[in-house]
Amino acid sequence: MVFAFCISRISSDFLFRQGDPDPRQSPTGMGEFYKIDAAAMILGLVLFYGNSKQGLKLKLLIGFWIIVGVLPAAITRDGGNHATRLILILPPLVFLVAYGMTEGIRLFIGNWR
Fold first, then answer.
1. CA atoms within 13 A of residue 105's CA, in its CB half-sphere
2. Which of 14-23, 33-42, 64-73, 91-100 has the lowest mean pLDDT?
3. Could you give the dihedral angle defined by the CA atoms of residues 77, 90, 45 and 73, in that order, rounded to the nearest 10 degrees?
4. What is the distance between the alpha carbons of residues 98 and 81, in angstroms, rounded to a whole number?
5. Who has greater pLDDT, 17 or 30?
6. By the 8 A CB rule, do 95 and 47 touch?
7. Cβ distance 40 to 104 under 8 Å?
8. Which helix (H) or strand (E) holds 103?
C-alpha cells in the first residue's frame, strides 16, 4: 500500500497536471513542473539509466533518493498532496530534467552536423 502511494506522488497528475490542491503551494490547474518539462524528464530518465557511462552507484543514488524522499509524505495523514513534504524529491527530478535537456540538445546538435 505504501509503495502504491509513493508511486502516485511521482505521477504525472501531481507533477505536471494538478499539483498540490492547496493554492499556496501551486497554482490551480498546474502541476509542480511545467508540462514541457515532462518530455525533458522522460528523455533524462531514458538517457541517464540507459547510458552505460554513468556509474551504477550514481544511478542507484538517484533512484533511492526519489523513493526515500516520498516516504515523509507517505507516513503522514493527508500528506501525499503537500508539495512541502515532497520537496525532498525536487533535486533528483530537476537533475533528470536538466540531464534530459542537455543530453537531448547534445544529441540533436551532433546528429544535425
1. 5
2. 14-23
3. -10
4. 24
5. 30
6. no
7. yes
8. helix 90-112
Write phi, then psi, for 104 (nearest 5 degrees).
Answer: -65, -45
For residue 27 the three cell numbers come to 497554482
Q: What are the grid coordinates assigned to 69, written together? A: 524522499
Grid cell 531514458 in the structure block, residue: 46
Size of the chain, expressed as the number of residues it contains:
113
User: What is the per-residue pLDDT across 55-93, written as a single tens digit (0 to 9) for each?
Assistant: 888 889 998 998 888 887 777 766 666 666 777 888 898
Tell me: the pLDDT tens digits for 89-112? 888 988 998 999 998 888 888 766
Whole-angstrom distance between the N-terminal and C-terminal Cα of the chain?
A: 50
At a CB cut-off of 8 Å and minimum separation 6, what does 53 contact? none
Angle at 79 between CA 44 and CA 16, to 5 degrees: 35
